[in-house]
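Extended Data, panel c. Modelled sequence:
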Amino acid sequence: MPQSVGLCATDISSIAAYANEACERLINDPTAPDEGWIGGWAKMAFTVSRTEPNIYTPQGIARIILLDVCKHPVRINNSWYEFLEFGRGYQPKGCTNANGGSPNPRCETLFAYERETVTTFAPLLATPQYIRAYISDPADVGRTALVQGKDSNGQTVRYLDALTDSSGLGERIAFSSPFTDTSNIWTEITGIQKVKTFGEVQFFQVDATTGAESPLLVMQPGETTASYRKYFIGGLPQQCCTAANPQVSDPQPLQVLAMCKLDFVPVSCDSDYLSIMSIPALKDEAQSIRLGTMDIPGAVQLSQQKHASALRLLFGQLDHYLGKERPALARHLWGSNKMYPQAL
């Protein structure tokens, strides 16, 4: 690819910039298939609490495409579904039977729902909490993070930016070994940012009274902003029927399988993995980017032609690996009911 855009093979930063823009443009192209290009999806397992049945997707996951609970596919509704007029309403309803007993079956229908984008993998506890950061590499000592939210008085925390002499949101902390605590006590977290690091950084909430720790999130070395998709599973079953244990209720957390669409993750060094797995398509898209910046006659048309060529190569790659005549289809003529023999 370097030669196709007039770069030297040793100019890693410029090559990475071309590769990143090419990958992001191809992934986000409106003509791309719903599941993404080859290598653009992955099967993952999530451990889900039965009392708080939420899934938080980590960095690198754009969204969950499909879910499987107890070996049964589960429909995922978008974030607008629960607000439709005359619809199901916001879940869970928490309603009970007329005698105040077990929940109404209508409230226990197995569905999954997209929820808001969140900052942490777990909610902040009710009591005020310190935020504690653990580094995993000594080389990160002195690097910084920014924690944003409200303090124990419900006031928005601010700091003074020395470079611009202006007010900024949050408290800036410098990493030290083995951990660093915020000076503020928090009742709400609205954002966490950090600079690029050599290793992972783990964030915990620490009870201001007891000192008990509880995990909040883990940020990867190249991750700078904490932002994760959240999903709620309504009507999670109290038991998964198996051959060895057909009817016994299991109080332990449940493992849920998911087919996830991978998000664009930028590369920065020569050993990083690309989001697009077709070199010819990347070369064409890189040339499209370069032509789009030229102020010469016909540059725009040539750029569009190269972009179309990159898309054709990616669709050809999909056909090569998945086949053209083997789509995944499930057709149930009787819906969720089976056809039973009738006695004469």
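DSSP finds three helices and 17 strands in the chain. This feature is highlighted in the accompanying rendering.
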